[in-house]
Each structure stands twice: as C-alpha cells, then as structure tokens.
Amino acid sequence: VTIRLYDASDREIRTPGNAPKPAGFHQIIWNGQDHAGKTVGSGVYLYAMTAGSFVESKKMRMLK
Could you state, in order of their start, the residue ranges of all structural domains in the chain? Predict the structure, then answer.
C-alpha cells in the first residue's frame, strides 16, 4: 500500500508511512509537512492510496 499526498496544484508533497503493510486496518498520521520538512499551509489536499491495481483518491482539508 502506498499513500501519496498532493497539493491543490497536483504536486506530490509527501509519501507518509511508505512501507509494506499486510492486509488489514492501518492508520497513517501526517504531521502537516512536505518532503522538505516545511509545514504546509491551510487548504485542500488530495491523497491517493494505491494497493496493487486498486487506486482510491479523496480530498482532505488542512486547518491550522
């Protein structure tokens, strides 16, 4: 399973918890930082989860 986070301009900003995981329930906590360690601003972000051929994308809102 891979999780990728994107900003509103569709730029990948983070790939948190990118490690192989067995099937089941998992939780990833994002610290609000991009790949460079900079805190991102409030706004709408997208996350995409990929598991084999399955891909799911959703919006989320970051509020400070």
Answer: 2-62
